[in-house]
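Limitations
The structure tokens in this dataset are predictions for the assembled complex, not deposited experimental models. Users should treat interface geometry with appropriate caution, especially where small molecules or nucleic acid strands are included. An illustrative entry is reproduced here so readers can see what is and is not provided.
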Amino acid sequence: MCLNKLQIIDYLWLLLITLTLFSAYMAERSTPELMSVLIMAAVLAIKGRIIVDHFMELKHSHRLLRRLMQTYFYVIPALILLVYLFPEKIAKWTSLS
Amino acid sequence: MSTVFDNNTSIKMRIEFPKTKLIPGSMAIWAAILSEMTEFALMFIVYFLAKVHNPEIFYEGPTKLNTSAGTVNTLIMLTSSYFVVRAVMAIRENNSTSSARWLWGAVICGGLYLVIKYFEYQWNIAQGLDTHKNIFYGVYYYVTFNHFLHVGWGTAGLVWVIYRLNTGVYTKDEHEGLINMALYWHMIDLAWITIFPLLYVIR
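Predicted assembly:
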């Protein structure tokens, strides 16, 4: 099956909506376990990548700009995981006293 | 595809890709977008630092917020971004009427977002969740109100682009102003899809 650009954009919008509803479901139902935090971080990474690559049309664009924007949505999800896994250590490293 | 000869007369194949613009929009809008993304990144770092130093407060904080309002606003922002993409696709087909209609859809989404956020703040205050409640709500109001302002002037920018469309400034061949506004709007969307899990979902 070969999708045209309009069909791709339509499906990506549907995917973004589905991921958002899934996030809301997780917010209401789940307790903050590693798996749910991992899923939330992954959902953010996927949503960010879709918007950067397809909505902003950076997928085949200037390499540095594309990498900068894509990296943003690797770093924030990574920070979410690090803050969940090592809160005490990060608190210790960022304390003034 | 074409063939070229190197100095040793051996044949090499060269693939010719379609000529595409390297950077969508102008350099100026990208300077603005990267500055704004940096500004939001600093806010997210403040959120992470406040969270590790106040784990109990940040565990309880999201449970008191109106998740439905946050979810609906996320759906609205994503849909507005979709409308903006459709507006860009329409102007590339030289259909400025259709492009303006899609942009009006995005403007309505922007307005709805602002109205929902206003009532969310009112609902919070009725529950006693104001800026002085604790550090979680301090961060929540600082980040979300900052984003609220971006949606406000972004929506005004969309209306300006519609005006320009209606005066015939943008055509199939020249519509960089519309692209710039579309990119800026997507940046506002990117900021919100990051804020939503941080403040409403993850504990």
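Some entries come with short summary sentences. For this one: Chain A has one domain: 5-93.
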